[in-house]
Amino acid sequence: MSKQPPPADCCVAPLACAPLTEDEAAELAPLLKAVADPVRLRLLSLIACHDGGEACVCDLTAAFDLTAPTISHHLKTLRRAGLIDSERRGTWVYYRLNPGVLERLSAVLAPRAATTR
Amino acid sequence: MSKQPPPADCCVAPLACAPLTEDEAAELAPLLKAVADPVRLRLLSLIACHDGGEACVCDLTAAFDLTAPTISHHLKTLRRAGLIDSERRGTWVYYRLNPGVLERLSAVLAPRAATTR
DNA sequence: CTTCTGGATAGATGGATGTCAAATTAGAGG
DNA sequence: CCTCTAATTTGACATCCATCTATCCAGAAG
Fold first, then answer.
1. Which of A43, A106, A117 is most worth mutating to test chain B (most B CB atoms within 10 A of its CB)?
2. Whole-angstrom distance between the N-terminal and C-terminal Cα of chain A?
3. Which of A10, A52, B2, B68 has a Cα at 20 to 30 A from B23?
4. Quick check: is B7 in a domain?
């Protein structure tokens, strides 16, 4: 924990600004890996686009030709990466996007400092 | 090829705009997968930051504690994903970023239509 | 308490992936 | 032609990962 990342409020150090350190790369890669799957991409999109910004697992499962455990596994992967959060309300569990994480990834991949402009 | 993607000039259909179709997700995932590796992230960054926007393989290999074949393998992965291009000049091979692809990924992950804000 | 349903976990399996050592190709220069 | 160096390819190996079936946990409602 000695080396803390850049402030993160301004330039999130896009890839093309300065060479990524080994630590930065090691921190970013798992995030991107969580996103780098067609099912999880669609899950993120479905959650983000759903009414109220949240979606029930049953809604999500219905959108795929996959078994419920598989969807549950992907949701867990996204949650452990910090991309989504879950909340149980009665019988159902709702997922919503954790804002900021996706934006950070977007900023890192942007050709230049992209948060503004 | 019946369903063509959105114009791509304006809104590149970020994830949160409309639910990603199965085809869109299937096309984006391999791109992200190519980026979702700490070594490849640093390779991209090193190439992007290098003088003239290009870097020789020997320069890249020197930046890692990995063997030359391993770096070559990662470069091939990036090249097949369309993220970089290579050019041989004499004995050396130079890699440069293929602009646009990274921008597209960045735009897709952006919270909203981010190209034009 | 019992039962039903939504969702998660456990375990198994086939396929993808990162890494290396060894062999191969491509120029450059005797 | 021979040799040296830069880079890639090949083949092997260990690990990871997406998916499934079977099982388990948590509320809700009888």
1. A106
2. 32
3. A52
4. no
Q: What value, to the nearest 5°, has the Cα angle with vertex A78 and ends A43 and A113?
A: 90
- Tell whether B64 is covered by a domain: yes
Nearest chain B CA: its distance from A88 CA (Å): 23
Closest nucleotide to B68: CA versus each C1': D7
pLDDT in tens, B42-101: 999 999 999 999 999 999 999 999 999 999 999 999 999 999 999 999 999 999 999 899
Specify the number of domains making up chain A: 1
* Cβ-contact B47, B55 below 8 angstroms: yes
Identify the CATH number of the domain in which residue A82 sits: 1.10.10.10
Classify residue A14: in a domain, yes or no: no
- Cα A116 from chain centre: 20
Question: Would residue A117 count as lying in a domain?
Answer: no
Please tell me which residue of chain B has the smallest CA distance to A33. Answer: B36
From the number of C-beta atoms within 10 Å of its C-beta (0-12, 13-18, 19+), residue A82 rates as: middle
Cβ contact A45–B20 (<8 Å): yes
CB proximity A78–strand D (7 Å threshold): no
Report yes or no: A78 and A57 within 8 Å, Cβ to Cβ: no
